[in-house]
Amino acid sequence: MMESAKTKEHQRLRLRVTAAAERALRSGHPWLFAEKIREQNREGTLGELAVIYDRNDQFLAVGLFDPYSPIRVRVLHAGEPQAIDRGWWARRLELALERRTGLFDAQTTGYRWIHGESDGWPGLVLDRYESTLVLKLYTAAWLPRLEEVVDVVTQRLRPERLVLRLSRNIQAIAGKVFGKTDGQSLAGTLPDGPVIFLESGLRFEADVLRGQKTGFFLDQRENRRRVGALAEGREVLNAFSFSGGFSVYAARGAARAVSDLDISSHALAGARRNFSLNQPANAKGTCEHELVQADAFEWLSQNEQRKFDLVILDPPSLAKRQNQRANALRAYHTLASSGIEHLRPGGILLACSCSAQVTAEEFFEVVRTAASGTGRTFAELETARRPPDHPATFKEAEYLKAIYLRET
């Protein structure tokens, strides 16, 4: 495996791994952890290509090396050797774009072009917001290659601007070694405020410079659409509302009233603006909009007299590490029970999880058990997972799940 014709065999970073790691890589898993490396020919440098060989000294995989991360190699390619050059990156981008062909029309101008490992770009995502693109890096291994990546992306997609976002764990090295900062421009001029984009014909703000993720929670698009279809005539509680996406859809779906509940005043201000951006969309009548700044767990437990016809529970990740999993499951049970306490007879509960450490089956069972424990009877309308522009090719990518229950 060569990065260029000038790369000599003895210069390559060569790794051999444990039998377990070899099996995982053969099955398509894109991460090689440091403790799974049993032999390394020399010290590796950040972002260089590490070539992994099997026990028979045959090529197994190649990936980006990161000496500072427990995920020591992010796999780019496995199977037969290939040259990793600019043409290879361009083809890899084209494959990601082709996967999105036909998914969106002119009424949706905010979506994901590249979804990290599952699109063959491990630790990197690329999101579109109208004519603005946001490139977010989750591993420092991309920093030495950033210029090449930017060139490939801008040549193919021709954005008005390209904004760089960096996960917190790599911001220090990005600034100190590479002179890169979170929220800087990689192409074009920075916007003077939030970027406005369309989703299903609705208008939303994306804070591409400082907002969570790349500026908006694009992965909940399909669930927002479902809420819009369920909302007619209902009073809706949107707990952990962030910038109010579910509420905007509910209003367009002719909800009677919506309440956005979030601990962040900044998030609620965004929710107010998003609601105002879409007032004409509520053509069937006036939907009342309430903003409640409070800890959602506390508010749900202390305000059981407030009743709603549709309760949405979409908390942030409650288990970012394996040792947080048990507490997360208990918290999901508590949330589901509390949410049901706020439901009027015949109401609908939507419970969501974005915790990768909690499987979909575990989460669904926790919510079902909580519902059963209330003594009320529910029909399961459906379960949902990731949207099509967020493909998942390994288990850690299956982070998003949702379940809909209606009281019968």
Average pLDDT works out at 94
Low-pLDDT residue spans: 4-9
Strand content: 25-35%
Provide the CATH superfamily of the largest domain: Vaccinia Virus protein VP39
Describe the structure.
It is built from ten helices and 20 strands. It is of the alpha/beta class. The protein has three domains: 70 residues, PUA domain (Archaeosine Trna-guanine Transglycosylase, Chain: A, domain 4); 108 residues, RNA methyltransferase domain (HRMD) like (Transcription Regulator spoIIAA, 2-Layer Sandwich), CATH 3.30.750; 191 residues, Rossmann fold, CATH 3.40.50. The protein has a seven-stranded mixed beta sheet, with helices on both faces. A hairpin with a 5-residue loop joins strand 5 and strand 6. Helix 5 runs parallel beside helix 6 and helix 9 crosses helix 10.
Give a short overview.
The protein is 28% helix and 29% strand. It has 408 residues and is an alpha/beta fold. The longest helix has 17 residues, at 325-341.
